[in-house]
Amino acid sequence: xxxxxxxxxxxxxxxxxxxxxxxxxDHPSFAAALLGRALWDAGFTVGxxxxxxxxxxxxxxxxxxxxxxxxxAVVPGAVDPMVNAYTPALKKRSQDSYSPGGKLNRxxxxxxxxxNAIHKMYPxxxxxxxxxxxxxxxxxxxxxxxDSVRQGILAxxxxxxLVYGMGELALIEIANKLRAxxxxxEIRDVPGTCWTMSVGEYRKNPMEDAVILPAYPNVTNRxxxxxxxxxxYQETKKPIVxxxxxxxxxxxxxxxxxxxxxxxxxxxxxxxxxxxxxxxxKIPALEPVQFSLVTHRGCFGNCxxxxxxxxxxxxxxxxxxxxxxxxxxxxxxxxxxRGTIQDVGGPTANMYAAICQKWEEEGPCRNKQCTSCKERxxxxxxxxxxxxxxxxxxxxxxVFISSGIRYDxxxxxxxxxxxxxxxxxxxxxxxxxxxxxxxxSKVTELMHKPTKFKFDVFINHFEQVRDKLEKxxxxxxxxxxxxxxxxxxxxxxxxxxLALYLREKNLYTEQVQDFxxxxxTLSTAMYYSGLNPLTGCKVHVPVGNEKLIQRAILHxxxxxxxxxxxxxxxxAGRKDLIGDLVPKSEVKRRLxx
Length: 593
Description:
This protein has 21 helices and 22 strands. The strands form 7 sheets. A 9-stranded mixed beta sheet has the order 3-1-4-5-8-9-12-11-10, sandwiched between helices. Strands 20-21-22 form a 3-stranded parallel beta sheet. Strands 2-13 form a two-stranded antiparallel sheet. Helix 8 (about 220-235) links the parallel strand 10 and strand 11 (about 240-245). Helix 2 packs across helix 6 (about 170-180), helix 8 (about 220-235) runs antiparallel to helix 18 and helix 19 packs across helix 20 (about 560-570). The longest helix is centred in the last third of the chain and has 22 residues, at about 450-475. About 45% of the residues are buried.
């Protein structure tokens, strides 16, 4: 982190310098730590510059560790910088959880700002970009914050290569090639990377074996954008190419997932699980994850609005139980550990140990229907075994699952009873977090979420298990559902249907997420194009005041939201619910004002 630390390590110039938009926390949940440890373990020395001062035009903070031997790598942060900077209503956030004291220390569009600064100071040095920001912007994409379709990020940032997805293997391969003195412009064969060529070269060598996306700016047309997204979304085995006015972006096929052995080794590297001592203020993002365990990578949920599938992939790679137990034992020895393992999970906790023979032989299926596929094998027994063995470790009082559970993967049968009983009894703190998001059939279909029928089945299952457990333990347990408003295809009437359903089930919740169109998701393509790209059918897109109304309807008990709720009921032709969903006395009082 500092020249003094380099000197203490006997390093004149590090092989790689990572520029991080997050403060440095030596924990496997933080990208700079994970990538830095992986490179160091592979035999490369690494320097890390965090949150450099980008407003000073001399860019001296970018040069404090000097020039690396091989390349700079820009890692903008664990959360997309624009999502981190703005609320779904486009209001500037007042805190950054990944900065000391929660201060706002990073620029918007972090990758572009940092890359331009590095290129100005070291114009001949290779620059590799990656992380969620670059990964989800590798092609032309709709940008919610400017309400426009922007170029692929390699057309805007002066970078040599882009690593998409989980980047350890690709970054190590790039480092090995540069160490072997391969010119960076000739590094075009690393899976999981994007590279560029000139328009002239592309015209001479049009790459006929690749999927060709519509060129920028043609792709700014809404209908063309939808078709372009469908081509990208359905491709799993070929390179993808998109021409821009001054460059052509080529995405190689994805990097293979890490094996269980590789994942075990990576997460057992000697992370301190602490923020760097250079910081005098706490980094808020560390506290909820400091004593957590990452069990696997990947998610086959295929939710339309989620970027995880495009970043981590749909193939589940799970760590071994033995590795997780060893990591937990080291964690327990830390003086700060107070007996609680805060989370055991991944993108979805109960996908741990799930397997499918097709994943290894053919890769993920094009139809993306893994959640309902009978060929996929559940890892529920392995998951329960892991959790039991963790909570039996000396010094452990509680083992929680905080990363969420996919309820439609828990069958309403004896095996499901056993699994749900174990989770509810030992691994939730009174509230079981689930994310149905909606219950209106046309909305759940567009979201790629389970139907209302499946949610009803789960609620009944949960209540049966809860009632039995409460008699044994006396502990009251609740469902905590996460819902979404303003998703493409969702109308005010759909939100009213959802509100009435929640009231009927006594499931009023504050956990309402207003849909945010993040780059390169199916839902964002619907939002911009007004079409379902996979069917070509028109989709209603909530915008403006309707977004405020949709969210308010799920907060029907909140007096401050009554005006929006009444407005929504009137627009939907449901004035009959005034005096029912919303107290009539309150409405009259407000009208008098």
